[in-house]
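User: My instructor asked us to take a sequence, write out its structure as tokens, and then describe one feature of it. I'm not sure where to start. Here is the sequence I was given:
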Amino acid sequence: MMRVGVLASGSGSNFQSLVDALNVAGSPARVELLVCNVPGARVIERARAAGVEVVVIDHRTAGPRESFDAQVVEALSARKLELVCLAGYMRLVTPTFLRAFPGKVLNLHPALLPSFPGLHAVKQALDAGVKVAGCTVHFVDEGTDTGPIIAQAAVQVLPGDDEARLGARIHAEEHRLYPAVVQAIARGHVTQSGRLVQLVEAL
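Assistant: Let's start with the prediction itself. The structure tokens for your sequence are:
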């Protein structure tokens, strides 16, 4: 059983999708811990309702970024977690964090990377006039949404789409894809050679 930690900052819909898919009988992975940097965020309520341990580390009072990440690393390492999933986590992680979990940090981005990295990805896609949008699960490196891509899901852009409508359809794919990737990793069905990541199962 792979022990998973989740870092989140907001409402926690992707956290919820991970818990709903993973914290069930027969799953090869389980969410064991939520680390949240925003006291009072909705995701904390979701975690407690699901029986997942919660650690809150307020980035506003935790000192410099490296100090904050060191505290997050301590919380994750103390529980011997094997995989870390960023889920609506509104912080850039530092080399201190990445060195502690080499090749073990995942992120979910609401665009088909390498297109539209960073904030407001759905708006970026609409402004660019693309016909296909989507989401990406990737390993995290020191860049902004630049890590090796694990899996992607495409979403058609429909006539009349605005950011809310397109974003909702992308979120639905995120909720399916992210848990599937974690399960594939837990089963040993994901291999990596440099930037090339291969899956032995369809997601």
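For the description part of your assignment, you could build on this observation: The helical segments are 13-22, 42-49, 65-78, 95-100, 121-128, 163-186. Try explaining in your own words what that tells you about the chain.
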